[in-house]
Amino acid sequence: MSRAIPMIITNTNVLVYNKQQGSFEDFSPPGISGRPNIPFYHSYAKEIAKTQRLFKDFIKNICPGKTAKNIFAIIVPDDTSPLESIFINEFFVNSGACKAVAQMTMGQALSKDAPAYVSISKSSRNIVLQYVKNNEILAARYYDCDNYDIARIKSEAKKLHIDIEYNKTPIFVNNFNLNMDDFFDMGEVVTPKDFMDKIAVIDVEKI
User: Which class for 38: exposed (0-12), middle (13-18), buried (19 or more C-beta within 10 A)?
Assistant: First the structure.
Protein backbone atom coordinates (compact mmCIF):
# COMPACT_ATOMS: atom_id res chain seq x y z
CA MET A 1 0.00 0.00 0.00
CA SER A 2 1.30 3.49 -0.87
CA ARG A 3 2.45 5.85 1.86
CA ALA A 4 1.76 9.57 1.53
CA ILE A 5 4.57 11.64 3.03
CA PRO A 6 3.87 15.39 3.41
CA MET A 7 6.77 17.74 2.63
CA ILE A 8 7.16 21.52 2.81
CA ILE A 9 9.73 23.42 0.80
CA THR A 10 10.31 26.55 2.86
CA ASN A 11 12.45 29.61 2.11
CA THR A 12 15.51 27.85 3.54
CA ASN A 13 15.07 24.09 3.72
CA VAL A 14 12.92 20.99 3.13
CA LEU A 15 10.70 19.74 5.95
CA VAL A 16 9.51 16.13 5.80
CA TYR A 17 6.78 14.79 8.04
CA ASN A 18 7.86 11.96 10.32
CA LYS A 19 4.63 10.14 11.12
CA GLN A 20 6.20 8.03 13.85
CA GLN A 21 7.41 11.12 15.73
CA GLY A 22 4.45 13.31 14.77
CA SER A 23 6.74 16.14 13.67
CA PHE A 24 8.53 17.59 10.66
CA GLU A 25 12.21 16.76 10.17
CA ASP A 26 14.67 19.15 8.52
CA PHE A 27 16.59 18.00 5.43
CA SER A 28 19.52 20.40 5.00
CA PRO A 29 22.46 18.81 3.14
CA PRO A 30 25.89 20.33 3.77
CA GLY A 31 27.32 22.83 1.33
CA ILE A 32 23.94 24.25 0.30
CA SER A 33 23.80 28.03 0.44
CA GLY A 34 21.21 30.48 -0.77
CA ARG A 35 21.67 33.56 -2.93
CA PRO A 36 19.41 36.61 -3.19
CA ASN A 37 16.24 35.89 -5.20
CA ILE A 38 17.34 32.32 -5.93
CA PRO A 39 15.67 29.50 -3.96
CA PHE A 40 18.14 27.36 -2.00
CA TYR A 41 17.27 24.13 -3.80
CA HIS A 42 18.80 25.44 -7.04
CA SER A 43 22.11 24.55 -5.39
CA TYR A 44 21.08 20.89 -5.38
CA ALA A 45 21.96 20.78 -9.08
CA LYS A 46 25.68 21.29 -8.33
CA GLU A 47 26.03 17.80 -6.86
CA ILE A 48 22.67 16.36 -7.72
CA ALA A 49 23.54 12.65 -7.48
CA LYS A 50 25.15 13.11 -4.05
CA THR A 51 22.27 15.25 -2.77
CA GLN A 52 19.70 12.74 -4.02
CA ARG A 53 21.58 9.93 -2.27
CA LEU A 54 21.64 11.92 0.97
CA PHE A 55 17.91 12.55 0.66
CA LYS A 56 17.14 8.89 0.05
CA ASP A 57 19.12 7.94 3.16
CA PHE A 58 17.26 10.65 5.08
CA ILE A 59 13.89 9.23 4.01
CA LYS A 60 14.91 5.68 4.89
CA ASN A 61 15.84 6.87 8.37
CA ILE A 62 12.50 8.53 9.15
CA CYS A 63 10.25 6.26 7.06
CA PRO A 64 11.65 2.72 7.23
CA GLY A 65 10.49 0.28 4.59
CA LYS A 66 10.43 0.15 0.82
CA THR A 67 10.85 3.59 -0.71
CA ALA A 68 8.89 2.36 -3.75
CA LYS A 69 5.73 2.73 -1.62
CA ASN A 70 6.25 6.44 -0.95
CA ILE A 71 4.28 9.26 -2.55
CA PHE A 72 5.50 12.74 -1.64
CA ALA A 73 2.88 15.45 -1.12
CA ILE A 74 5.09 18.48 -1.78
CA ILE A 75 4.02 21.96 -0.69
CA VAL A 76 5.99 24.69 -2.48
CA PRO A 77 6.24 28.49 -2.10
CA ASP A 78 3.55 30.41 -3.96
CA ASP A 79 5.99 31.96 -6.43
CA THR A 80 7.49 28.66 -7.60
CA SER A 81 7.86 28.87 -11.38
CA PRO A 82 6.79 26.08 -13.79
CA LEU A 83 10.44 25.22 -14.47
CA GLU A 84 11.19 25.11 -10.74
CA SER A 85 8.19 22.82 -10.22
CA ILE A 86 9.57 20.44 -12.84
CA PHE A 87 13.01 20.47 -11.22
CA ILE A 88 11.52 19.78 -7.78
CA ASN A 89 9.44 16.87 -9.07
CA GLU A 90 12.33 15.37 -11.05
CA PHE A 91 14.77 15.74 -8.17
CA PHE A 92 12.63 13.78 -5.73
CA VAL A 93 11.33 11.15 -8.17
CA ASN A 94 14.84 10.43 -9.43
CA SER A 95 16.26 10.25 -5.92
CA GLY A 96 14.81 6.74 -5.58
CA ALA A 97 13.08 7.79 -2.37
CA CYS A 98 9.55 7.56 -3.81
CA LYS A 99 7.47 6.24 -6.68
CA ALA A 100 5.59 9.48 -7.37
CA VAL A 101 5.09 13.07 -6.25
CA ALA A 102 2.14 15.45 -6.05
CA GLN A 103 2.64 19.20 -5.75
CA MET A 104 0.65 22.23 -4.66
CA THR A 105 1.41 25.76 -3.48
CA MET A 106 1.26 26.92 0.11
CA GLY A 107 -1.68 29.13 -0.80
CA GLN A 108 -3.68 26.12 -1.98
CA ALA A 109 -3.10 24.41 1.36
CA LEU A 110 -4.22 27.22 3.68
CA SER A 111 -7.85 26.13 4.04
CA LYS A 112 -9.71 22.86 3.70
CA ASP A 113 -13.09 24.35 4.50
CA ALA A 114 -13.43 27.50 2.40
CA PRO A 115 -14.39 26.65 -1.20
CA ALA A 116 -12.96 29.98 -2.40
CA TYR A 117 -10.52 32.38 -0.78
CA VAL A 118 -7.61 34.76 -1.31
CA SER A 119 -4.19 33.91 0.08
CA ILE A 120 -1.28 36.23 0.66
CA SER A 121 2.25 35.11 1.45
CA LYS A 122 5.87 36.21 1.26
CA SER A 123 8.65 34.03 -0.13
CA SER A 124 12.35 34.89 -0.28
CA ARG A 125 11.72 37.02 -3.38
CA ASN A 126 8.03 37.91 -3.76
CA ILE A 127 4.81 38.77 -2.01
CA VAL A 128 2.11 36.67 -3.66
CA LEU A 129 -1.64 37.06 -3.88
CA GLN A 130 -3.62 34.04 -5.05
CA TYR A 131 -7.31 33.47 -5.62
CA VAL A 132 -8.02 29.81 -4.91
CA LYS A 133 -11.32 28.17 -5.77
CA ASN A 134 -12.02 24.44 -5.38
CA ASN A 135 -8.27 23.85 -4.89
CA GLU A 136 -7.37 25.59 -8.18
CA ILE A 137 -5.49 28.86 -8.58
CA LEU A 138 -7.67 31.08 -10.77
CA ALA A 139 -5.65 34.28 -10.41
CA ALA A 140 -2.30 35.36 -8.97
CA ARG A 141 -0.29 38.55 -8.63
CA TYR A 142 3.34 39.03 -7.59
CA TYR A 143 5.21 41.89 -5.93
CA ASP A 144 8.93 42.30 -5.26
CA CYS A 145 9.36 41.61 -1.54
CA ASP A 146 12.06 44.28 -1.31
CA ASN A 147 9.99 47.03 -2.92
CA TYR A 148 6.24 47.04 -2.42
CA ASP A 149 3.37 49.32 -1.52
CA ILE A 150 1.29 47.87 1.31
CA ALA A 151 -1.79 49.95 0.50
CA ARG A 152 -1.66 48.94 -3.16
CA ILE A 153 -1.44 45.23 -2.34
CA LYS A 154 -4.38 45.45 0.05
CA SER A 155 -6.43 47.28 -2.55
CA GLU A 156 -5.57 44.88 -5.37
CA ALA A 157 -6.36 41.87 -3.20
CA LYS A 158 -10.01 42.94 -3.43
CA LYS A 159 -9.86 43.02 -7.23
CA LEU A 160 -7.77 39.93 -7.93
CA HIS A 161 -10.64 38.15 -9.69
CA ILE A 162 -14.12 39.18 -10.80
CA ASP A 163 -15.64 36.72 -8.30
CA ILE A 164 -14.12 38.67 -5.43
CA GLU A 165 -15.58 41.99 -6.52
CA TYR A 166 -19.14 40.72 -6.12
CA ASN A 167 -18.83 38.17 -3.31
CA LYS A 168 -17.49 38.32 0.21
CA THR A 169 -14.34 36.24 0.00
CA PRO A 170 -12.20 35.28 3.02
CA ILE A 171 -8.52 36.17 3.02
CA PHE A 172 -5.88 33.97 4.63
CA VAL A 173 -2.53 35.47 5.60
CA ASN A 174 0.20 32.84 5.44
CA ASN A 175 2.59 33.67 8.28
CA PHE A 176 4.54 30.41 8.01
CA ASN A 177 7.80 32.35 7.62
CA LEU A 178 6.90 34.86 10.37
CA ASN A 179 7.24 37.76 7.94
CA MET A 180 3.66 38.99 7.37
CA ASP A 181 3.23 41.62 10.11
CA ASP A 182 2.34 44.29 7.53
CA PHE A 183 -0.71 42.30 6.44
CA PHE A 184 -2.19 40.90 9.66
CA ASP A 185 -5.25 43.14 9.37
CA MET A 186 -6.23 41.71 5.96
CA GLY A 187 -7.77 38.49 7.20
CA GLU A 188 -7.23 35.29 9.16
CA VAL A 189 -3.58 34.75 10.05
CA VAL A 190 -2.31 31.19 9.59
CA THR A 191 0.54 30.52 12.04
CA PRO A 192 3.41 28.08 11.42
CA LYS A 193 1.80 25.55 13.76
CA ASP A 194 -1.59 25.93 12.07
CA PHE A 195 0.03 25.40 8.68
CA MET A 196 2.07 22.35 9.67
CA ASP A 197 -0.96 20.79 11.36
CA LYS A 198 -2.89 21.13 8.06
CA ILE A 199 -0.05 19.66 5.99
CA ALA A 200 0.56 16.74 8.36
CA VAL A 201 -2.85 15.30 7.42
CA ILE A 202 -2.96 16.40 3.80
CA ASP A 203 -4.86 14.22 1.35
CA VAL A 204 -2.68 13.40 -1.68
CA GLU A 205 -5.76 12.74 -3.82
CA LYS A 206 -6.73 16.43 -3.55
CA ILE A 207 -3.39 17.74 -4.80
Answer: exposed
Specify the pTM: 0.91
Cα distance between residue 122 and residue 116, in whole Å:
20
Structural contact between residues 118 and 130, judged by C-beta atoms closer than 8 angstroms: yes
Residue 112 and residue 89: Cα distance in Å, rounded?
24
pLDDT, tens only, 131-186: 999 999 999 999 999 999 999 999 999 999 999 988 889 999 999 999 999 999 99
Q: Cβ(102)–Cβ(71) under 8 Å?
A: yes
Residue-wise pLDDT tens digits, 66-111: 898 999 999 999 999 999 999 999 999 999 999 999 999 999 999 9
Q: What are the two backbone dihedrals, phi and then psi, of residue 168, each rounded to the nearest 5 degrees? A: -75, 115
Contact 101, 92 (CB under 8 A): yes
